[in-house]
Amino acid sequence: MPSLNDYISAERANRYKAAAMKKRETARVRAAAMQQRAPRFERRVTVRTTFYEPDMRRDADNVGFARKFVLDGLVAAGVIKDDSRKYVEQCPDRVLTDRARPRVVVEVSDPPRQGQATQGVAQGRPRPHSRAGGKGARPRDSPRAAAVQEPVG
Prior knowledge:
The chain has four helices and five strands; from the N terminus they run H-H-E-H-H-E-E-E-E.
């Protein structure tokens, strides 16, 4: 996914180029969520985004800008009602390195209750467009957790 610097460069070159970039990346997230039949959430959620970069070149805050495309794509797919603070309580992100398979993994779940530790969604065998699975994952039809995975590139 494009970083903040990529977006700024596109915006400075031509405002339509930056708008096309946002539209394209938002559509990619929407398509991945719909293909994976991510459940719909009508209440407040936590959206965790893990960016797997091919190297350590880009700063974490620069990469994290792509969270905007992720949230807009989830709204477009109907996974979350809106990306306002009324519906998205938290949206933490992590930036890790995976030279062999850069990708973005998005997990949508109920926010942790007051005083309760955050419980993540277990990730199954990694492959493009896989659903969350493996030990500790919620059943596929459960509206309490969903994971969307999109290859970068």
